[in-house]
Write a structure and sequence with these properties.
single chain, 422 residues, alpha/beta, Metallo-beta-lactamase, Chain A, Serine Threonine Protein Phosphatase 5, Tetratricopeptide repeat, 6-stranded mixed sheet, 13 strands
Length: 422
Amino acid sequence: MAETKEAPAKGDGPKLAGLVRSGDEQADAIAVTDFIFQANDISNAYLVTTSEGDVMINTGFMDNAERTSRLLAPHRTGPLAFIVLTQSHADHYGGLPEFLEEGTQVIGGPGFDEAVGDMMGLQPFFGPRSGKLWGSTLKRGGTPKPPPDVKPDILVDRKLTLDLGGRTFEIISTPEGETIDALTVWMPKEKIAFTGNVFGPVWLSMPFLNTLRGDKPRLVRNYLKSLETIRDLGAEIVITGHGDAIVGKDRIKADLDKLHAAVSYVRDYTFEGMNAGKDVHTLMREFAWPEGLEIGEFHGKASWAVKSIWREYAGWLHYEDGTTALYGVPRSSVDADLAELAGGAEKLAERAQAKLDADKPLEAIHLVDVALGAEPGNVPALKVRKAANEVLLKECGGKNLSETMWLRSEIAECEKLLGEGA
């Protein structure tokens, strides 16, 4: 096995915000082994050298392509034979034009073209949603460059084997970690697996089965099958899309066993609750990890996975929502009526403040949603909404980046409407 320095196991795991910005101050590529080099990015890019040329696994984000190229250039040993894209998100393929050479073949997973087409076709929808969540964290200072138009030369169906310069690369379809086209690159001689974001951005943590930004739901059944496929490889080094390599066959096996057991528990808990007649919100509230099974919730959360699994198996209609859920007239259409019956938006804001004082911030937000639906600029309601989100932010502790980014963006929106922080 190739030599590499083992990163210490960390019970809490690294902070996701730090991981996606870890390349900002990187001066040199990280030598994972004497033939694998890492350039940190929103999702990392890797260079693998052989005696007959180089292979890249992902190319990083388009805004950082020049930096990624500069970091990896000193370690290049020959022509770039292949670029493997482990998934169809721009932080994996955005830097591609910077690296393409004559003769370089680009490899993507099954459904890559369709997945990119869907995401790009819906950019007017997804773009503002991503900006709300990620704008302040990535601190781009402006709109990112448009992603390049990428058409892989080779689309892997289930498995593709390549031999180059004495090294073998088995490229395996492992869908549903983040995309249906996800790939794992396995080097059987060296016992090294490049998993991209199959396991999310943080090792040993809850998968994000449906992101807050929005995307096609990731199916829990397929996620577990992909986990099993990778676990069965018997890797001695796992290189993910973020952070340090995971080193040690026994550790990797134990971690993947625990991850499989944890995600299976969330799935089974959801099924049991559905069969017992519980609604999805009750299941979300009542979820708790059994002792010894808890994993990180840095991007996805177990309670959100409950909601995603419910929808995967039961669809969009929750029977407790009743008849109106079948039609295009939302509850907000009667906000003005409810506010009038309550004596005005300020009366609702007063009741919301009482809920907040009773440590019920979510009930407070429900009430001010009605108040602001009737009177969007109502100052008392905006103040309660801001305060309630601040309570939730404090309670969540900043561990889950998506939750933290959402709450901060809601607070910032309230401050803007209140004329604060100008």
